[in-house]
Design brief:
By secondary structure, the chain is an alpha+beta fold. Helices cover 41% and strands 20% of the residues. It starts with 7 loop residues before the first strand and ends in an 11-residue tail after the last helix.
């Protein structure tokens, strides 16, 4: 009889069997067995057949009998902390790939704080106080060892950055505006403004507000980019600085600081005026691409002028010359779509002005408004509201008011609807007419940068700082964040609604056309890979759901950081920036 007692173990037996159908089959039998010695011979006893149990349970029994200890995971493994990680990890990875840490300066506490401010500005724009609170709830502060950073330290880091701005911008200009990568030597420049809070900053002044905040002081800032809209430098001006003055200042800054002797500046008609062109000639070595103002276009379109409508019978652009613009090429363009839009808008504004003027005329006839002075004030406000005064003939007396349309003025403006002229010093050997038009229209890239900086991505406004140095540092941080966003948007085109392959235009004057793939993505809300298509901001929010979890084993056991299982979109986002999902932000 078998001897009871002693240790048991699990054995696995496999039998190979070939059926009548010729298929080989393997049968496994898992037995719980006890070994014992009897009469000097080792014998085995089968205690139970475990084959009917799940494979996982059989393995647990096998390992338990071998000496391993198992306890319920819910009792001895807990998530002690879970923090958002994916969005800051992706942005930091792209920043490292672009060499931004080395661009900022030598390693140290100040550089870590500035780097964190740039990453935070991309992921969650906010005030500096809000930012220090936010990054403590992500892996950003912990991984950069800035969890204990105070607001004063952040301000000191901004001062450190402001002192290094010229060096950083010089490196960016050398990287993106040198002749090797920018053979046409083109640079785009535009000016914008943002309102200020408080009245203590010496840069704050009242001026033309592009934000519609007429009752608040503001600052102006000019953004310099390469031809594709990649920001490379920014300069802050007092809020009452005019566009031409800012343009001249930035050109002198480029020549003195960046040692760029030859460049072609691209700016709109309000910035590169005739007076600014004269200044460029005095500086020397600088060309320009800009457009003529409406009165200049009208002068060229006079009966004896070179700009005649017959030029557009076969094409939407034509090159002309005029002695008033020596050494320059004039590219006349006609955009039929723009002509239709301008005609529609003019009719709407005329109709709105007619309604208001009719109300005034009715009040005058009823005797509610008396006196030419009072009538003139009310009429002036109405025609100035929509800037339609040039299209009206007004008759105001002390007791009457009448108005009619100035048909000659309306007809003259209608004839020029959709027509604009580009002036440039770039030779035809360097850039043909189509390229000149495309270059001027590339100013839309700078306008997109401003939208990104001011509201869509980086929320620069309003500016809360009251020292000149900190205001400049704040704007510079936003510019560096815009530089980072530019590259992220380019990399993540397949995951967002951005057109990945916009068709090349045979007619540079015509409006841009989206590709069929982009239309399909917009309609289905799906990418080519079947993933959800998102906006850039919502993609960052989705990446933020990839958390890093601190798993603690036992009451006094070790804590192991572990990432949640990434979604397909999160994996793809990191693949597109050529990096693996990192456990920490530190390299």
């Amino acid at each position: 009889m078998a001897k009871r007692g002693g240790a048991v173990h699990v054995t696995t037996h496999r039998r190979h069997y070939t059926g009548k159908d010729g298929v080989d089959r393997v049968y496994e039998t898992h037995l719980l067995r006890r070994s014992f010695r009897q009469d000097g011979v080792v014998r085995n006893e089968t205690v139970a057949n475990l084959s009917h149990l799940p494979t996982e349970l059989i393995e647990v029994i096998r390992r338990s009998l071998a000496g391993d200890s198992f306890v319920p995971a819910t009792e001895h493994a807990s998530v002690s902390r879970s923090v958002p990680h994916g969005h800051v990890a992706a942005v930091a990875a792209q920043a490292n790939a672009l060499g931004i840490p080395g661009l900022l300066g030598p390693p140290g506490r100040a550089r870590d704080l500035v780097f964190a401010l740039i990453v935070a500005r991309v992921c969650r724009p906010g005030s500096k106080l809000a930012t220090t609170r936010w990054w403590a709830d992500t892996t950003l502060a912990e991984d950069l060892s800035i969890t204990d950073a105070s607001t004063d330290e952040v301000y000191a880091a901004m001062d450190w950055l402001a002192a290094r701005q010229d060096k950083i911008e010089t490196k960016l200009v050398a990287r993106h505006l040198n002749q090797a990568v920018n053979p046409d030597r083109l640079a785009l420049f535009d000016l914008s403004s943002s309102w200020m809070t408080g009245r203590c900053c010496p840069l704050a002044a009242r001026g033309y507000s592009r934000d519609g905040k007429k009752g608040l002081p503001q600052i102006e800032y000019g953004l310099l980019t390469d031809p594709v809209g990649r920001p490379v430098a920014v300069k802050v001006f007092p809020g009452n600085t005019a566009d031409p003055t800012a343009f001249t200042t930035i050109v002198e800054h480029i020549k003195a600081k960046f040692n760029l002797g030859k460049m072609v500046m691209v700016g709109d008609r309000g910035m590169i005026t005739s007076a600014r062109i004269d200044a460029l000639k005095e500086i020397g070595g600088y060309g320009w691409v800009t457009a003529l103002r409406a009165p200049q276009v009208a002068a060229l379109a006079a009966d004896d002028g070179p700009l005649q409508m017959s030029l557009f019978d076969e094409a939407n652009l034509a090159e002309i010359t005029h002695p008033d613009y020596p050494g320059e090429r004039l590219i006349a363009c006609r955009n039929p779509a723009l002509a239709i839009e301008r005609a529609r808008k003019r009719q709407e504004l005329l109709a709105a002005t007619d309604t208001n003027l009719t109300a005034i005329a009715t009040s005058v006839a009823a005797g509610r408004i008396k006196g030419a002075g009072k009538m003139g004030i009310k009429v002036g406000k109405v025609i100035g509201k929509h800037k339609m005064g040039k299209h009206y003939d007004l008759d105001i007396t002390d007791t009457t008011f009448t108005f009619t349309h100035n048909t000659d003025s309306i007809a003259a403006e209608t004839a020029l609807d959709g027509i604009y002229l580009i002036r440039t010093t770039v030779s035809a050997d360097t850039m043909d007419a189509n390229q000149v038009v495309a270059t001027y229209k590339s100013l839309a890239n700078v306008e997109r940068d401003f939208r990104s900086i001011k509201s869509i991505d980086l929320d620069l406004r309003p500016v809360h700082h009251y020292t000149e140095t900190r205001v400049r540092a704040h704007v510079f941080i936003c510019m560096l964040a815009a530089y980072l966003v530019w590259h992220l948007r380019a990399a993540w085109k397949p995951l967002t609604f951005t057109d990945e392959n916009r068709p090349e235009q045979t007619d540079p004057v015509a409006p841009a056309v989206r590709s069929h793939a982009a239309d399909r993505k917009a309609a289905t809300k799906k990418t080519r890979d079947g993933l959800p298509a998102r906006s850039f901001t919502s993609l960052l929010d989705h990446l933020g759901t990839l958390t890093r979890n601190d798993l603690r084993y036992g009451d006094d056991g070790p804590t192991v950081p572990t990432l949640t299982e990434p979604t397909d979109t999160q994996r793809r986002a990191f693949d597109l920036i050529n990096t693996r999902i990192p456990l920490t932000l530190r390299k």
